[in-house]
Each structure stands twice: as C-alpha cells, then as structure tokens.
C-alpha cells in the first residue's frame, strides 16, 4: 500500500485558508502608511485616516449624498448586469462554435487591450454626459472578462458528459442547467467578482471624467475645492461598498456553489 502511494508522487493537499490575523495586520500596515504619507504631504494634499473617518458623518448627512450614491449604485448595477449577461451569452454560444469564437476573438482582444480612458472619451462624444455614457463604458469593459471565463469553462467540460447528455436527449436548457452551469460555477463567480469590483472603479472613473452627478462627480468637486477630508471619506465609502460586494455576497456565494468540486470524504 505504501509503495503504491509513493509511486503516485506527493499527495495533493488543499490550499491553506487566508489568515484573518495577517489580513488584519495588512490593513493596519496600509493605515499606518497612509497616516505617515498624510503627515509628510500635509492636509492640503492628503487627509489622515482619522480626518477621513470624521468627514464621513457630515458627508452622509448632506442632502446630496443619497442622490449621488443612488445614481452611482444604479449605474453599477445596470453596467455590471449588462456586461456579465452579454459576456456569458456570447461565451456559451462561442463555446459551441469554433467559427463564432474566431469571429469574436479580434473584438475581445481589442476591448481588453484598449485603455479605459479611450473608451471614456469616445463614449462622451457619442452619448454626452450622464447615465447612458457611464453604463455603456461599464458594459463594454466588463463583458470581455466574463466572455473569456465562460469560453474557457465551456471548453473544459468533459466531452463524454456532453455525449451522454445527447444520448439521453437533453435539450439546450437541461444541458445548460445540469451540465454547463455546475462546470462553469467556479470560473463564472470569479469573473463576476472581478466584474463587480471593477465595475465600481469604472463607474467612478467615468463619473469623474464626465458626469453631472454621482459619486465620481462628488469626488471631482471635492478635488476642485481641495477638500481632501471629504475626498478620502468618499474613497473609504467606495472601499466599503467593494468589501460588501466581495466578502458579504460574492465570496460566500462562490463557496456555496463551489462545494460540488470538493472531494468526498466518505
């Protein structure tokens, strides 16, 4: 028994979970570096972490806060949902057709290679300022990542399982539900995590460069008035939103749907 195990090489072990204590230490290190940099640069260029935290209360109580935050959340939801849906649908279709993959590949490469600021400038010319421009940018930049992960997942599905689904006369919907979605759950959730967090950054960047409302517009106003405390308060709130999306919603969902990949201990 031992000889056969030795002949098979080293046993694979599951990767260790991230240490929460070391993660907390990393957060403290970032805050310390932020504080030291703020002290060196002065309050006109960078607020300290404490100043930014104190500015959150007045910012949240201001009449413009919920209007700007609501507009940005709507844009993030619409852009990420549209980009993820388009990327997933095209990825499923391209996973079945090598010709369609070849047709889409140049467009995928173009969108992933193009700097986001170029897309922002073009969208401002085409749509003007406002929500359509921001949603268009987010959708266009989010779809390629979802498409790539979907295609890769489709191509790694066991061919024997696909043939078996045809033998048992599974229709397209049953194959998608019982064969492809379980196989795609891990890469798709990873892509959705990246898309959601990246969507927040893209929306804020687009609003800073060309919008008449939203969180990015408020950031630009704080920058123009040199109100660094309010600017960094907005940064902390944006980081809180990204943390909420990742650690409270997407990562638990990823762990729950990925349990089918865990080896059985029976």
From TrEMBL:
SUPFAM superfamilies: MetI-like (SSF161098)
Keyword Transmembrane on entry: yes
Highest taxon listed in the record's lineage: Bacteria
Cleaved signal peptide residues: none
Gene3D superfamilies: MetI-like (1.10.3720.10)
Keyword annotations of the record: Cell membrane, Membrane, Transmembrane, Transmembrane helix, Transport
ABC transmembrane type-1 domain location: 69-249
Cellular-component GO terms for this entry: plasma membrane
Membrane-crossing residue ranges in chain numbering: 21-38, 76-95, 107-127, 133-151, 179-204, 231-250
Family annotation (Pfam families): BPD_transp_1
Location of the protein in the cell: Cell membrane
Classification via InterPro entries: MetI-like, MetI-like_sf
Membrane topology: Multi-pass membrane protein
GO biological process: transmembrane transport
Family the entry assigns: Belongs to the binding-protein-dependent transport system permease family.
Record protein name field: Aliphatic sulfonates transport permease protein SsuC
Species name: Achromobacter agilis
